Amino acid sequence: MKITVAGIGYVGLSLAVLLSQKNEVIAYDLDQDKINKVNNKVSPIADHQLEIFLSSKDLNLKATNNENDAYGTSKYLIISTPTNYDSKLNKFDTSSVEKIIKNAIEINKNIIIIIKSTLPIGYVESVRIKFNYENIYFSPEFLREGKALYDNLYPSRIVVGDKNKVGKEFSHLLSDCAMKSEIPIPILLTNPSEAEAIKLFSNSYLAMRVAYFNEIDNYAIKNNLNTKDIIIGTSYDPRIGNYYNNPSFGYGGYCLPKDTKQLLENFSSTPNHLIKAIVESNSSRKNFIVEDIIARKPNTIGVYRLIMKSGSDNYRESSIMDIMLHLAKRKLSILLYEPLIDEHDLKKLNESSNMKIKLISDFAEFKNKCDLIITNRKSDGLEDIGEKLYTRDIFRID
């Protein structure tokens, strides 16, 4: 089957690689560098399994920025472009999704569109009316940064927002390319709005767990208690479980911040306290961490890495970014060690936030110049810092 995937990011590329094992797949993007890398069997994003599959597997996959080639003869179009949260409009910015829908149906009147980008609840129904086009569906993704292909190969579940032919066929396409195991993949076919809700509620629940254990850590710090013992004892209860319980500077990344805000907006006319509290708790956690750092009276603060987790190259919406910016606003001296950015990137960051953060590329010099080094997650190379290190990473897991 001929399938087009629009958007060569974590979601799009992992789906393109997954499906190209057994189908003809075209990856569409505007970024020529990403296109060149994919066509040269090089992953443009950090994902170990993606790198292996692209370099060593026989995949029927090519990338292009030509819309006619991408949409012209494909049966399915999977849209996986980012839908960032617009704080001014209090909702996802779905303009990239709608642009692709408009152009695709002008080129191919029969194309079946499956949106993988995260959406507000009720979006598919509204966009079908807007474009007078019924062949638009939603199928949520449940992927982790740095393990996107792995999570497509071994999916926890497959959800498609259609109970009829398209839902059955598309769920089969995904399951047929996944790795087989003794336990069948749970498949759920729903109406479109229920599928959209599943994505937002799933991520908001995970954000709630992060916020809950961070508040345990707040209490333990404030009252000089052992956070680790409290969390271990709490998590021994099988109804609670030993997962998503490692304290951090707050939840961040591609999904949780924007999805919780979008769900809160969807709840605007529905009584709620918990959803609002999840969003507010994350802000409170960051403020608490900032005050705890300042209480140590550091002269020069080092920020070690902006990335959200090991094996990832993403620092968008990273919680340590907010901590760093809050500290810089207090006129504290901030030195940053982050190999993924250069002076040009830092200049844009400083200009956008009116800060004066300095970048140090030499790790030894960085450790020597800072009297306190903060990191959201512990990493190899920090063992010799000792009392200089400030982190809430107790279990050394993402």
Task: List the defining traits of the structure above.
single chain; 398 residues; 15 strands
Please explain how this structure is put together.
It contains 15 helices and 15 strands. 44% of the residues lie in helices and 13% in strands. It has 398 residues and is of the alpha/beta class. Strands 3-2-1-4-7-8 form a six-stranded parallel sheet, sandwiched between helices. The protein has a five-stranded parallel sheet with strand order 13-12-11-14-15, sandwiched between helices. A two-stranded antiparallel ribbon has the order 5-6. Helix 9 packs parallel to helix 12, helix 11 packs across helix 12 and helix 12 (274-294) crosses helix 13 (319-329).
Quickly give the structural class: alpha/beta
Question: Globular, elongated, flat, extended or rod-shaped: what is the shape?
Answer: globular
Radius of gyration: 22 Å
Mean pLDDT metric: 94
Number of strands: 15
Order of helices and strands: EHEHHEHEEEHEHEHEHEHHHHEHEHEHEE
Major sheet characteristics: 6 strands, parallel
Q: Provide a count of the helices.
A: 15
Low-confidence stretches: none
**Amount of beta strand:** 5-15%
- Portion of residues in helices? 40-55%
Q: Could you tell me how far the N terminus lies from the C terminus, measured between alpha carbons in angstroms?
A: 37 Å
Sequence of strands across the biggest β-sheet: 3-2-1-4-7-8
